[in-house]
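Appendix B.2, paired examples.
Example (i):
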Amino acid sequence: MKIPVTGFVMDSGDGNSDHSHKLYITSWNGNPVHVHAFSGVTSINDGHSHEYESWTASAPTGVPHVHEYHTFTSYDQGHTHLIQGTTGPAIDLPSGGHYHLFEGYTTINGCHPHSHAYRGRTGNEVSSG
């Protein structure tokens, strides 16, 4: 099965020879794509918490979908944690658009190895095209 996809490729500018370009998809199977902002503060563990913020991966607009996400937490107590996962399904907003719920646990890091719980809801959809 072939799915028509449109987008563009840009040099990532990071000098990493393994991944020197980034692909930005603007439509998937004829549907424009969108992203969501997400942010929050982790649970307190080992005497501290971490902040995080980023954007979800793109997903098609107007069809049932979820989004992948990943980011690193703020640098606190000498370390960061990776946050990654998949959002829940879209939840419609009365004023139009939608959001997604997300939750999980960070990677285990730190001088005293530990993880943090996190949860939240994304912002409303934003066109990524």
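Example (ii):
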Amino acid sequence: MQIPVTGFVVESQDDDGRHSHKLYITSWDGRPVHVHAFAGVTSVNDGHSHQYSSWTAPAPTGVPHVHDYRTITSLNQGHTHVIQGTTGPAISLPGGGHYHLFQGFTTVNGSHPHSHAYSGRTGNEANSG
């Protein structure tokens, strides 16, 4: 099966000399794609919590869908955690648009190895193009 995808690639040269590319998809099967902002504070474990914020991965507009997400928490007590997963399905908003619920546990890290729970809802959809 072939699905037409449009977008653009951005080339970068990191300070350490590594070469990388980022792919930005602007349409999927003829439908524009969108993203959602997400942010929150983790549970308190080992005497502290972490903040996080980022954008979900793009997904097609106007069809049932979910979004992948990944970010790094704030640096607290000398360490960070990775937050990643897949949102739940779209939940319609009364005035138009939609949001998604997300939840999970961070990676294990810290001088006393531990993880944190997190959960929340994304913001309304935003055009990623």
